[in-house]
Design brief:
- The structure is a homodimer.
- Chain A is of the alpha+beta class.
- The first copy, chain A, folds into two domains: 81 residues, Arc Repressor Mutant, subunit A (Orthogonal Bundle); 130 residues, Chorismate lyase (3-Layer(aba) Sandwich), CATH 3.40.1410.
- Chain A has nine helices and ten strands.
- In chain A, the strands form three sheets. Chain A has a six-stranded antiparallel β-sheet.
- In chain A, strand 5 and strand 6 form a beta hairpin.
- In chain A, helix 1 packs across helix 2 and helix 2 packs across helix 4.
- Chain A starts with a helix and ends in an 11-residue tail after the last strand.
- The structure holds a DNA duplex.
DNA sequence: GCCCATTTGTGCGTATGTATG
DNA sequence: GCATACATACGCACAAATGGG
């Protein structure tokens, strides 16, 4: 990753009204998300960036600090700034905001998504309150966790807003990371995600697909995702059958929030 | 909340080696956490702070920006900076990093904690891997959610590190917010919380306490909390009986993390 | 609708401290 | 000890949002 590449990326992500530190943040994020730079890669140092880019040192530091907060990069005095391997890693690493812990307790079980259907649906529906649009594009997937069990995912977006999900070939949809697709399409990262969980009996067709008894209680997870802080971008519902596997919620929550 | 009070607080939280923006951040946080300032209160403006405190404008802005990120304050151009009412509110608002959603879907069910026991326990135990100490102080609580059901909480800390939990009267322990206690004792906020959830059968005595059938599956939540980013400070295990109530995980996760 | 004071938000340039190899 | 590179901090200038007259 050299400063020239970043300079070009930066132009693409610069828009009038957008703070420079956000543009730089998004440019780096894109370079990582798209696989253009591999984990471990060293970035140009602050000084060089400040010379090559039309951004001052302090502003560059602010952008990099945000990337550190988000675990996208790591910075070490005397050494440099490096692309972190935790956040993106490879293709399609973690399908949710949560991941199932493997036997070691350190890593995560691999996931294998399979798209079952993609269609426009008319509202009102579960997505309506969050997305604030009547009709939606619905993508149903079955996602195999390791070689142990499958979860069922229903995903809704506004097709007018994200036509990319309509046009993208099904085959590609299978291997794509949805968050990454949204980031590429909107030029903005998903920052806020609200999770709601409870025990629930899934609809019959879901039980059938997951190959579990009818009326078997599952753990249900609703996901409300926002672009930036307030802008609803997708809605999702996931059913997980009973399993001994622990779900790690990456609640990296930087908020203090007082309570035991 | 005036600048003079903050100035005194700031001195208390200033330590050699500690960045000024952290000291200011912690001072404000303490003022909020301890209830000295009420939600909605207006803070002195940037200029005034920069004049009264031995901190420059840019540094003050950095501290305030962090507080905004953490939802402790809100800032509005042309108006000022205000203590947010979401984060702390009052006494003992949310007992977990998660809260049960009420009927309206907007608010949360009230919680009523009850301390069942507090004792030193010898390791190794569930806490050992996280806290990295053999012996621990264990606090068992039953927490009533609304008037509907109860959850069971086991909480472990290192008594050498947080003797306050040993010395505090039981009655006070009941009404205290544990995170707030830790903040007061350590002068530092809990930033990182790892959550792990799965379906599990609780021990018999837990089933009995929660008044549910033996061998009834419950939702189990493990909590690993850190002071700052890496310093383990407490470990907790919570059993929730089957309920229709949704648990809202405040996963305010600012990390982008790519995936649908 | 428009001007204006207030307050936050962004950005620059620079200086100095500190960790690493 | 020394060069490198990040970390903190300062002071300033101007832009942008808000609310009141």
């Amino acid at each position: 990753m050299n400063a020239i590449d970043l300079s070009q990326l930066l132009e693409r992500f610069s828009r009038p009204g957008l703070p420079k530190y956000t543009a730089l943040h998004d440019a780096v994020l894109h370079a990582v998300a798209s696989g253009q730079v591999k984990p471990g890669t060293r970035m140009p140092n602050e000084q060089e960036l400040a010379q090559v880019l039309p951004i001052s040192l302090g502003t560059i530091q602010r952008a990099l600090r945000q990337l550190v907060d988000e675990r996208v990069i790591q910075r070490r005095p005397g050494q440099g700034s490096f692309i972190s391997d935790r956040s993106s890693g490879g293709q399609m690493e973690h399908p949710f905001h949560c991941r199932f812990v493997d036997d070691s307790g350190q890593g995560y079980l691999p996931v294998f998504p399979e798209v079952l259907s993609r269609e426009r649906v008319s509202g009102p529906g579960p997505w309506t309150a969050h997305l604030r649009c009547k009709d939606a594009l619905q993508i149903i997937r079955r996602i195999r966790i390791g070689d142990e069990f499958s979860v069922h995912s229903a995903f809704w977006v506004d097709p007018l807003r994200l036509p990319v999900f309509v046009s993208m070939p099904l085959r590609q949809l299978t291997s794509e990371n949805f968050k990454q697709v949204i980031f590429r399409a909107c030029g903005q990262a998903i920052h806020k995600v609200d999770l709601f969980t409870r025990q629930d009996v899934p609809p019959l067709e879901v039980s059938k697909l997951l190959d579990i008894p009818a009326r078997q209680f599952c753990s249900s997870l609703r996901v409300q995702a926002f672009l930036g802080e307030t802008d609803p971008i997708y809605y999702q519902r996931i059913f997980t059958p009973p399993t001994e596997r622990e779900l790690h919620i990456v609640s990296d929550s930087r908020a203090p929030g007082f309570a035991p």
